[in-house]
Amino acid sequence: MPELPEVETTRRGIAPLIEGKAVSAVIVRQPRLRWDIPSLDHLPGESVRTVSRRAKYLLIGFDSGTLIIHLGMSGSLRFLPADSPPDRHDHFELQFGRHALRLRDPRRFGAVLWSAEPPTEHKLIRALGPEPLSQDFHADYLYQQARRRRLPIKQLLMNNGVVVGVGNIYATESLFQAGIHPARACNRISRARLESLVENIKEILARAIQQGGTTLRDFQHEDGKPGYFQQQLHVYGRVGEPCSTCGTTIKAKQIGQRTSAWCPQCQR
């Protein structure tokens, strides 16, 4: 699933390719994604003003409103010649003359929505927590959120009302770096340990974005694969392997319906 660093890498990749360009056509091949794609007949002739992001939502701004795109479980965006033959999973595209921004979504869990109001007021966005790389996400904030709840810290990090876009991979890796067991009750973790966790979340996400940013040219190619996972993963996807720090076998369990890996020696 594309997580925040992947969505931010996508934003950085497509922004210079479409900002300031006028839409020449809108093509909908499969309107039924997570929600039905609304009519966008008004867009041809309008120019893209901004390409931004909130959580895992890509926001393509026009004078008349905002196109909201979510990549879902398997979606990707590619910028390619408009006459390129579409794949059977290419469901939606914006054409800009000879080129097109094309959404491929094999599992159709993604979304293409329209908001005439500011996107921050959209029902899917207005209740979201702070961005993890913003100044609004800090140790005092996380400590106050954790004190109110008894759930595992891993679940707290994946609650988009608390903080957006950390996701399974980056929550798992950040908890390892901070030495915190993913199942530990969040209200029983000290502020000092949560401060370390916040620092690790910010550092790991920033590094993932930076590494994704080294391959932005791929958004102009057919595959559209920016190589998200070049960063070294210490525990995610390494169940049964030795810990890179202490050699203890990595274990995993279900926490909040998601597989959570950890090192029994390094994480308490």
How would you characterize this protein structure?
The protein is of the alpha+beta class. The protein folds into two domains: 4-121, MutM-like, N-terminal (N-terminal domain of MutM-like DNA repair proteins, Alpha-Beta Barrel); 139-232, Helicase, Ruva Protein, domain 3 (Orthogonal Bundle). The chain is 24% helix and 21% strand. It is built from five helices and ten strands; from the N terminus they run H-E-E-E-E-E-E-E-E-H-H-H-H-E-E. It has a four-stranded antiparallel beta sheet, covered by helices on one side. Strands 2-3-4-8 form a four-stranded antiparallel beta sheet, with helices on one face. Helix 1 packs parallel to helix 5 (191-212), helix 2 (139-147) packs across helix 5 and helix 4 (167-178) packs across helix 5 (191-212). The protein is elongated. The two termini are 28 Å apart. Mean pLDDT is 92; it is low at 213-218, 220-224 and 226-230.
Overall pLDDT metric: 92
Helix-residue proportion: 10-25%
- Find the count of extended strands (DSSP E, 2+ residues): 10
Strand content: 15-25%
- Compute the number of helices: 5
Largest sheet: 4 strands, antiparallel
How do the strands of the widest beta sheet line up side by side? 1-6-7-5
Categorize the overall geometry. elongated
